[in-house]
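Deliverable D2.4 — example input (structure tokens):
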């Protein structure tokens, strides 16, 4: 199969799937999601993504209709049915189907959605261009909620500017990107924003910190500013599907390019981890 979709126990090609009109996701974006990549039909870092998924759902009071082990079994059964060697694996849970009303329904079962499609891993050797955007999103960015309109609008601004991603900032404080985490290398130190309620605790971010420890690269989890971002030796954008990309430009101004050896050391370690985990080496 070229792709595969799932909704509340039903499977089909994504283009054939239908969902009830009154699913609360349509009215409120009332749900949470997670996503990762897969290689050789092995889902990468699945345990960590499942844990974050359940944590996000719990913070919104949504009871996922499967245990963690049951969900992993469903995902692993589905991935082998989709053609190709590299895939994007996405799943979400919504609060369920009920007439439109802001108050949470108490007797409605949550609905699980899954989507798997072929998708190559990003090219780590290709630089990305960024723009900065004032972060006007809400104060629950640590929850991987389906309410992504601000992210969508910011990502569209980047597209219109001929760029690949957005860097959000609140005042002068850098937070994260529209669909990634952002970090800097400065004077041999890897610096990443702390995981408070203003950023998503990225799985790729956690693995970057792990690689820093394994490679004896000093790291700091602290707030940094837009000015520090612009003056960094390297600007790194991380996500579960692209691992560790580097920026060459922010707001039309060249950035980075001053710590290439250290950057490549991190990129190589992350790619080797992925290839080993998916049994490709």
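Example output (designed residues):
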């Amino acid at each position: 199969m070229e792709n595969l979709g799932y909704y509340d126990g039903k499977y089909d090609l994504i283009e054939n799937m239908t969902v009830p009109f009154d699913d609360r996701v349509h009215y409120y974006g009332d749900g949470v999601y997670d996503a990762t990549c897969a290689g050789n039909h092995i889902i990468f870092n699945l345990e960590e993504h499942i844990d974050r998924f359940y944590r996000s759902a719990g913070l919104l009071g949504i009871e996922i209709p499967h245990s963690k082990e049951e969900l992993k079994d469903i995902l692993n059964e589905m991935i082998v049915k989709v053609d190709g060697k590299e895939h994007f694996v996405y799943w979400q849970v919504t609060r369920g189907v009920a007439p439109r009303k802001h108050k949470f329904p108490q007797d409605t079962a949550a609905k699980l959605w899954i989507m798997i499609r072929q998708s190559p891993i990003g090219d780590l050797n290709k630089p990305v261009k960024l723009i900065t955007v004032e972060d006007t999103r809400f104060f629950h960015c640590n929850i991987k909620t389906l309410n992504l309109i601000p992210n969508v609008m910011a990502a569209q601004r980047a597209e219109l500017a001929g760029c690949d991603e957005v860097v959000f900032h609140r005042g002068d404080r850098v937070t994260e990107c529209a669909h990634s985490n952002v970090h800097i290398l400065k004077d041999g130190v890897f610096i990443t924003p702390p995981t408070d309620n203003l950023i998503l605790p990225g799985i790729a971010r956690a693995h970057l910190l792990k690689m820093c420890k394994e490679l004896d690269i000093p790291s700091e989890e602290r707030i940094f500013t837009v000015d520090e971002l612009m003056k960094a030796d390297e600007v790194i954008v991380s996500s579960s599907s692209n691992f560790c990309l580097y920026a060459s430009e922010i707001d039309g101004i060249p950035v980075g390019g001053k710590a290439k050896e250290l950057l490549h050391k991190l990129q190589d370690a992350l790619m080797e981890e992925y290839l080993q985990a998916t049994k490709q080496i």
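DSSP finds seven helices and 15 strands in the chain.
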